[in-house]
Design brief:
Number of strands of chain B: 10
Structural class of chain A: mainly alpha
Largest sheet of chain A: none
Strand content of chain A: under 5%
Largest interface: A-B, 33 and 28 residues
Oligomer: heterodimer
Radius of gyration of chain B: 35 Å
Number of helices of chain A: 10
Helix content of chain B: 55-70%
Distance between the termini of chain A: 25 Å
Shape of chain B: elongated
Radius of gyration of chain A: 27 Å
Strand order of the largest sheet of chain B: 5-4-2-3-1-6-10-9
Largest sheet of chain B: 8 strands, mixed
């Protein structure tokens, strides 16, 4: 037994939970604790404002993109637009973009698109009748919550994307692939669930097929082909969304929506940046867990 | 090492009669056992016998009494008093509880693996060999005493007369007519056994579905096996008799366990238990059949209405209700429509081809008469098992519904779990039995997701059908099990053992214990028999009850239902414990025949 009154005879105490330090009682406080706390280094957070703004813009353009689901839906449900024409336009657009990007269509891409189209074709009558007995109100409510969930999951996927960029420099490639698969699957699936829910309200099977096709093209394939936060793309989608709001809800709603947009793209990033740099605790060690998060096995 | 003297209690009362006389105790000691006092004789008659050396080992002159005080001839002995069990009235002492099940089945009945390992552990081994030897000696006390009295007639105080009835019985045994009757009975029983054995083997042919499906077949099989086993049991009991006659002449040593007559007492109990139960069965059958016969028209009307309502109208109502948004839950119209159409079609089919012809009033009347006849002639259990079979035949459509919907549900559940992995971008790795990340192509992902969503939306519909039909099936299983438990009670109730326990607990030993007593000779131990606990008699019933509870009404059942595992009624697995009084393999008839012939009086 080591005499506890004589300092120096025992191994110095370490601030690690997973170490077995039998020589010290459970409620042991190191004499150098306050000294240590005083001398903690203050971290100066220096966030890149441009990057925050780009992220917010990205998110904004994703919200706009999601709006297309509802625009298409209400176009068919409320205004009786011709679904074939709409789907033709979107399909041609997608084809054009993919030709532009890949120059020539490969066999594999053809196969996959044919499979997708035929799957949708087969399943659209089933999807149409799937939740037909459910009341319309409950469909709206479920759809609303699914959209919210979708936006959050998409946001998470964007942030994990940007995290991944930083990780790529340090860790190996396998991690990167895993991260991508995680981040992209969930939002895609939630979006599809939402679309399947909504499609039960459409009048015919053709409507359902076209609705599904358009939604998949715009929300899943298009973001893969081009950067939707690019200026031109963003401009086009902004134009369409605002026009739609103007037509369906009126000019005043459009103004309100516009104000919100400006707040979201210009004011909110600034507030966020300000809070992050000025109000965040400068010694995170006090607030964060006592130990480092993962034990280092020796 | 402490030495013990086993001292029979009744010799003390003998002392009291001639309190002033000087007595001496004669004991016997076999090779490895302790000393056991055989008799207390007056010192005077002992002296008359001659000098001390006239008593030779294994007999010893161990103690004498002076002024009402026993003085041991050697020091270092401790007295254990005992009430000598009468082997002639089948009392005996035993260290282990008496086994009422067949020894070869005992392995299956005994508790879990871990307990067995614990028992095998060195530290828990107790060397009971010496004590066991002494207990065996105590069991054979009266035999040794008889032997002693024959050897030294001058010392013995009582002379036993052979009772008159034994004499007359012995005379009868040598009579000519007795031999003929014996022979005829033997041939009749052997032929019955032969037929029963053949039926049992026929029913037990592997892959034959009878025993699994039909309760009646099981009942016939059980009765046949019991009949086959009777001669074997009879032989064992008989052999025991001959053995007990021989034993007094065994002078010393080698009273090994195999020779002890009490080894066959469990067989005796089992044999008479089975016989009694069979008689009971027939008397129950007579009562029930008389009651049924008297009220047959009322019974027919009741059954006709009940079966039609429960198995046709009610189920049809439920199925139609399910198609029509039950409890306000919005189900998928197309699927409900399809499923209820399918089930309604099966219901109608079953009604036309099974229920209507079987439950017509005239058919029912005929069936009840047949049942009464069977009950009164071979026993209530057969009638009850016929009823169970009738019930399961009539409710065949429910069985079908359950299995159809169970398959559908389990397929859907399985597909949904796998698609859920895909939903999260994962995949089950069969080789390593774990869930891995996986990169899916866009078309795979879309197709999987669409299928998953369809399945998710269809789940409530399938679930509604699944739950209602599972409930129906469970109700049916419960009713069948309750009827079957009545059958098992009549078949396997330990009636004989229970009455023995009440009448003479010494015939059902469950171990021994010691009490401390005091008298003017000092402190002594009193050896006592612990009768078998009542719970032990019902051990196999407890096991069956627990199995039924585990299989059909526990959290485990609910989990199984949720997981979509089918509820199977495996009667063999459920009730095999109760067959523990029967041997695993029946003895060949030839062997039994030859051995029985040997028992024939010459």
């Amino acid at each position: 037994m080591v005499d506890s009154n004589v300092p120096g005879t025992r191994t110095p105490w370490r601030r690690l939970l997973w170490l077995k330090q039998d020589e010290y009682p459970d409620n042991y406080t190191d004499p150098g604790f306050t000294e240590y706390m005083k001398n903690l280094k203050e971290i100066d957070f220096d966030y890149d404002y441009d990057r925050i703004r780009t992220d917010f813009l990205k998110f904004y353009s994703l919200i706009l993109n999601t709006c297309f689901v509802f625009i298409t839906f209400s176009g068919m449900y409320e205004y009786d637009y011709d679904p074939k024409l709409m789907s033709l336009i979107s399909t041609l657009t997608i084809c054009g973009f993919s030709l532009l990007k890949y120059h020539k269509l490969s066999n594999k891409q053809m196969k996959s698109s044919v499979i997708i189209i035929f799957t949708i074709l087969t399943l659209s009558p089933v999807l149409k009748s799937l939740s037909q007995t459910t009341s319309t109100d409950s469909i709206w409510v479920i759809s609303f919550w699914l959209t919210i969930y979708y936006l959050f999951s998409v946001f998470k996927s964007i942030t994990s994307d940007s995290k991944m960029v930083t990780m790529m420099t340090t860790t190996n490639k396998i991690k990167k692939v895993r991260n991508i698969t995680y981040s992209k699957n969930l939002p895609t699936n939630i979006l599809l669930a939402n679309v399947a829910m909504l499609s039960s309200r459409l009048p015919t099977t053709t409507h359902v097929f076209c609705f599904l096709l358009i939604c998949i093209e715009i929300n899943i394939i298009l973001p893969k082909l081009l950067d939707i936060s690019k200026f031109t793309v963003s401009l086009v989608s902004n134009l369409i969304v605002y026009t739609y709001i103007n037509i369906s809800w009126g000019f005043s709603s459009m103004i309100i929506f516009g104000i919100f947009t400006i707040l979201f793209t210009n004011v909110l990033p600034r507030v966020f940046w300000y809070w992050e740099t000025h109000y965040k605790c400068k010694t995170p060690e006090i607030l964060s867990l006592w130990d480092t998060k993962t034990p280092i096995l020796t | 090492m402490v030495h013990y003297i086993f001292w029979p209690e009744y010799t003390y009362s003998k002392e009291l009669n001639n309190i002033n006389e000087e007595l001496c105790a004669i004991s016997i000691a076999l090779e490895s056992g302790d000393q056991m006092v055989l008799d207390v004789v007056p010192e005077s008659s002992f002296r008359r016998q001659g000098p001390n050396n006239s008593i030779l080992p294994p007999y010893y002159y161990i103690a004498r009494r002076r002024d009402g005080q026993w003085i041991l001839n050697h020091d270092g002995f401790y007295i254990i008093r005992f009430v000598a069990p009468k082997l002639s009235s089948m009392q005996f002492l035993s260290l282990e509880p008496i086994l009422l099940t067949s020894p070869e089945r005992q392995e299956e009945l005994s508790s879990s693996e871990s307990i067995k390992i614990l028992f095998d552990y060195e530290r828990y081994h107790v060397d009971k060999a010496r004590f066991k030897q002494s207990i065996d000696q105590v069991n054979l006390y009266y035999n040794y005493l008889l032997d002693f009295e024959k050897k030294f007639p001058q010392l013995s105080s009582t002379i036993q007369e052979t009772p008159l009835y034994v004499k007359s019985f012995n005379w009868c045994k040598n009579c000519f007519i007795y031999k003929i009757i014996y022979k005829i009975l033997l041939f009749i029983s052997i032929s019955i056994c032969f037929i029963a054995g053949q039926i049992s083997t026929l029913l037990n042919i592997s892959f034959s579905p009878f025993l699994r499906i039909s309760v009646t077949a099981r009942q016939i099989d059980l009765r046949c096996q019991q009949l086959c086993y009777f001669p074997v049991q009879f032989l064992r009991i008989n052999k025991n008799r001959t053995l007990s006659k021989l034993l007094p002449r065994v002078k010393d040593t080698e009273t090994s366990e195999t020779q002890l007559p009490c080894r066959f007492y469990p067989d005796y109990i089992r044999f008479y238990n089975t016989l009694w139960l069979m008689t009971n069965d027939i008397s129950f059958g007579l009562i029930i059949s008389a009651m049924c016969y008297e009220n047959q028209h009322k019974l027919v009307n009741l059954l006709h209405k009940m079966i039609r309502y429960c198995l046709y109208d009610f189920i049809k109502k439920v199925t139609i209700q399910l198609a029509d948004n039950p409890l306000g839950i919005k189900l998928n119209a197309e699927l409900t429509h399809f499923l209820s159409e399918l089930f309604l079609w099966i219901i109608d089919f079953a009604y036309i081809h099974i229920i209507e012809p079987l439950t017509g009033k005239e058919t029912l009347l005929m069936l009840i008469k047949l049942n009464c006849y069977v009950m009164s002639s071979i026993g209530a259990t057969f009638g009850l098992s016929l009823t169970v079979d009738f019930l399961s035949l009539c409710s065949f459509h429910i069985f079908l519904f359950y299995h159809i919907i169970n398959k559908l549900y389990s397929w859907q559940l399985n597909a949904m779990t796998n698609l859920y992995y895909l939903f999260r971008g994962k995949k089950k790795n069969k080789l390593r039995d774990r869930i891995d990340f996986n990169y899916f192509e866009l078309d795979q992902l879309l197709m999987g997701t669409l299928l998953f969503i369809i399945m998710v939306y269809l789940t409530p519909t399938v679930l509604a059908f699944y739950i209602s039909y599972t409930c129906l099936r469970l109700c049916l299983i419960y009713s069948e099990i309750s009827l079957e438990s009545i059958i098992t009670l009549i078949n396997h109730f330990p009636l004989f053992a229970l009455l023995l326990r009440v009448k003479d607990p010494k015939r059902l030993p469950g171990g021994v214990s010691f009490d401390i007593g005091h008298d003017n000779n000092g402190t002594f131990l009193l050896l006592k028999n612990n009768p078998l606990k009542i719970g032990m008699l019902f051990k196999s019933f407890n096991i069956v009850l627990q199995q039924v509870m585990n299989n059909y009404c526990s959290i485990h059942t609910i989990l199984n239902i949720i997981k979509g595992n089918p509820i199977i009624m495996d009667r063999h697995k459920l009730y095999y414990v109760l067959y523990s009084s029967l041997p695993e393999k029946s003895v060949t008839i030839n062997e039994v025949y030859e051995q029985l012939l040997e028992t024939l009086p010459n």
